[in-house]
């Protein structure tokens, strides 16, 4: 059993996420991109070019622009349209919008050059018949943002979206879950293994101290980022 304590029943609604974006309450966004993706890019790409790379719960992650500029094809999903519009605006990338026939109310925002496709909808509305399968994924602020009660559902979906032999870089966080309610939620290594273990080889690449004033204000006294590489079998 895992020691996630009181977090297991916590639910953050879609409306609460939309409100965070409306209020500009987005302390999770990294303007300079994520140093761990830079460092482990080769582990994700494995020398391959022109990959289809998935960004679940993408926000306006600047890493999508990095990888697109390297010639990869990016697909993201995010419930906040504001986040997606800010992404295109902040990078000066022209785009167009179209409905997604399979998902009522969903929109796809796609760069004019076609290499970045961002779905504005709930991730649970996606399926491989809509977005096809991926060669790689960058999961940061995604599994750890999913409500704990939905983790298995989220992982089951991810498993259907990843090709055989694909690489999935997963960044999680570690802190005392009795001192902060999340998100981000604490996902112990034992749980990563039970969620993904039957479908992947899992390797922990690095644990880095990421403690900052923000975490101190949450009442924490340590905060680690833990990076895994998952290889789909
Ligand atoms: N991965 C991004 C954003 C992390 S915050 C980054 O690293 O910066 C989590 C994001 O997921 C928020 O932008 C939130 O609006 C979005 N989100 C939460 N639940 C979602 C869901 N069920 N479907 C799609 N997006 C969701």
TrEMBL record:
<keyword id="KW-0489">Methyltransferase</keyword>
<dbReference type="GO" id="GO:0032259">
    <property type="term" value="P:methylation"/>
</dbReference>
<dbReference type="InterPro" id="IPR008854">
    <property type="entry name" value="TPMT"/>
</dbReference>
<dbReference type="InterPro" id="IPR029063">
    <property type="entry name" value="SAM-dependent_MTases_sf"/>
</dbReference>
<keyword id="KW-0808">Transferase</keyword>
<comment type="similarity">
    <text>Belongs to the class I-like SAM-binding methyltransferase superfamily. TPMT family.</text>
</comment>
<keyword id="KW-0963">Cytoplasm</keyword>
<protein>
    <recommendedName>
        <fullName>thiopurine S-methyltransferase</fullName>
        <ecNumber>2.1.1.67</ecNumber>
    </recommendedName>
</protein>
<keyword id="KW-0949">S-adenosyl-L-methionine</keyword>
<dbReference type="InterPro" id="IPR025835">
    <property type="entry name" value="Thiopurine_S-MeTrfase"/>
</dbReference>
<dbReference type="GO" id="GO:0005737">
    <property type="term" value="C:cytoplasm"/>
</dbReference>
<dbReference type="GO" id="GO:0008119">
    <property type="term" value="F:thiopurine S-methyltransferase activity"/>
</dbReference>
<dbReference type="Pfam" id="PF05724">
    <property type="entry name" value="TPMT"/>
</dbReference>
């Amino acid at each position: 059993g895992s020691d996630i304590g009181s977090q297991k029943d916590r639910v953050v609604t879609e409306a609460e996420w939309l409100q965070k974006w409306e209020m500009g309450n987005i302390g999770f966004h990294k303007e300079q991109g994520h140093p761990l993706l830079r460092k482990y890019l080769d582990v994700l790409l494995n020398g391959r070019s022109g990959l289809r790379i998935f960004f679940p719960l993408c926000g306006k992650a600047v890493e999508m622009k990095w990888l697109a500029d390297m010639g990869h094809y990016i697909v993201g999903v995010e419930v906040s349209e504001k986040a997606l519009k800010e992404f295109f605006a902040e990078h000066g990338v022209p785009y167009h919008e179209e409905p997604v026939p399979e998902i009522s109310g969903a929109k796809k925002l796609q760069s004019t050059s076609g290499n970045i496709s961002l779905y504005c909808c709930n991730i649970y509305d996606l399926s491989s018949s809509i977005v096809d399968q991926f060669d790689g994924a960058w999961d940061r602020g995604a599994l750890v943002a999913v409500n704990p009660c939905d983790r298995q559902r989220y992982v089951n979906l991810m498993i259907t979206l990843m090709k055989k032999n694909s690489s999935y870089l997963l960044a999680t966080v570690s802190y005392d879950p009795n001192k902060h309610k999340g998100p981000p939620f604490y996902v112990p290594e034992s749980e990563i293994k039970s969620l993904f273990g039957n479908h992947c080889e899992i390797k922990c690449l690095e644990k880095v101290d990421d403690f900052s004033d923000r975490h101190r204000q949450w009442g924490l006294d340590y905060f680690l980022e833990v990076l895994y590489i998952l290889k789909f079998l």
